[in-house]
Amino acid sequence: MLHLTDIHLDLSYTPGSNSTCGEPVCCRPDSPRDHDDRHTAGYWSQTMWSCDCPLNFADDSIKHMGDNHKDVDLIIWTGDNVPHDVWETSVEHNIAHIKAMTDALKKAFPNTPVFPCLGNHEPHPVNMYVPNALTVETQGKVSMGWLYDTLADDLWKQWIDTESAKKAF
User: Fold this and answer.
1) Residue ranges of the Calcineurin-like phosphoesterase domain (predicted)?
2) Residue 49 has pLDDT above 80, yes or no
């Protein structure tokens, strides 16, 4: 079994950018510079400061797992694929990060069952879990349907492949 969690992919991660910018998330092209050029984001990642995971690191790590662990029978994927940039989330932003991780998993493990679930960073706004009763009460105006439907009907349909699985998800 492989368990993936809290990847916090950052599609804006930029090697050479400032990794000690004083913001909640650094290592981006617009990260404020400090006066110490020793703190730059590396090509593969920067784990000492406020930086999330670059795409090349996530892709290559998952590819390595797929190439070297053909004996994986199933994958438990417990979310938090979206970076810690909670002030920049949007439906499009969050889906782009989830899709990038989904694509990497499908490519590296095309025939392995994956059991995905959501972390607290996948919704927009972050931590927003709308009870079904509220969705009904507001006639869909307050809803997580955009996320559940996009994942179950599109990105994750090979893993959520029955009506009962979709309902449980």
Assistant:
1) 2-132
2) no
